[in-house]
Amino acid sequence: MSIQAPSSVVMIRPDQFHPNPQTAGDNVFQTELSNDPAAIAAKAQNEFDQAVSALQGAGIGVHVFQDHGVDTPDSVFPNNWFSTHAGGSVAVYPMYAENRRRERRSDVIEMLKQDYRVQEVVDYSGLEPDGLYLEGTGAMVIDHLTRVAYVARSHRADPILLERFCTQFGYEPIVFDAVDQNGVPVYHTNVLMAIGTKVAMVGLDMIPDRDRRAEIERRLREPDREVVALTHEQIHAFAGNAIELSSPDGRVLALSQCAFDALTPDQVITLEQSVRLLPLSIPTLESAGGSVRCMLAGIHLSKRNP
Q1: Could you tell me the residue range of the domain that residue 162 belongs to?
Q2: How does DSSP assign 253-302, residue by residue?
Q3: Is 37 a domain residue?
Q4: Phi, psi at residue 242, to the nearest 5°?
Q5: How confident is the model at residue 37 (pLDDT cuts 50, 70, 90)?
Q6: Confidence band (pLDDT; 50, 70, 90) for 73?
Q7: If DSSP states are collapsed to H, E and C, what string results for 145-194?
Q8: CA 234 to CA 266: how far, in whole Å?
Q9: CATH of the domain at 236
Q10: Residues 187, 72: Cα–Cα separation, whole Å
């Protein structure tokens, strides 16, 4: 098992799924769907169930929770409201959109305490009334090997709260500006960057500051890691929204079918030198503006003995 690649994840099965109007203002990855809510929800649930089966078939432990929220359209993306860290720490985060705050649920935290060794739960969600937001491993892409938190500047990653988190959890923050081809700031860092044990994928062209771009590439390469540069088109196809996982047969890179189809043959060859690619078909779920990485909240905790 790699410290970077968890072997178990938490996933939330959606109920009333649809793109979130409260996040549409800055999430350019969202797309409109038909006006048949029941059909959309059924497609989303089917894609979710198939993704769970594929992950379990690859040897990944999946803890599935059913969403029963009245107005929680983004509940399928739990990586924004909590994260786990080696040594037994859990962080709970403040969310920008009001309806996303309803996604936090105590039964997930209780399961973690029961099945894994949890020493502390640090809850930052009480800072929402102060307008301080830090949307978990959406706003931060964490390199557990070098203890770095990469963060694209946005109102979803408050610098004061980021500094507090990094001090408390022992990470070095590396903050940078990132924009798409139209000059629109990237809303979440994890749409442009995925860090594995031996390979990282990153939309370097989205970082306009040349010196900062070179520094980030150098830092990503430090622990003997390959860097695969992604184009704007590949980023928009969610190629950067992937996650490395540990299976009994080695490391797996979970990504969407859309993301896989956007990769070049040479990129696939580079990736497959260190991971097995596991494409998941989730076109309906991706309409909400997130992809596979957003759906999987990795568990970086030690299991309790049975």
Answers
A1: 8-298
A2: EEEEHHHHHHS-HHHHHHHHTT-EEEEE--HHHHTTT--HHHH-EE--SP
A3: yes
A4: -120, 165
A5: confident
A6: confident
A7: CCCEEEEECCCCECHHHHHHHHHHHCCEEEEECCECCCCCECCCHHHCEE
A8: 14
A9: 3.75.10.10
A10: 19
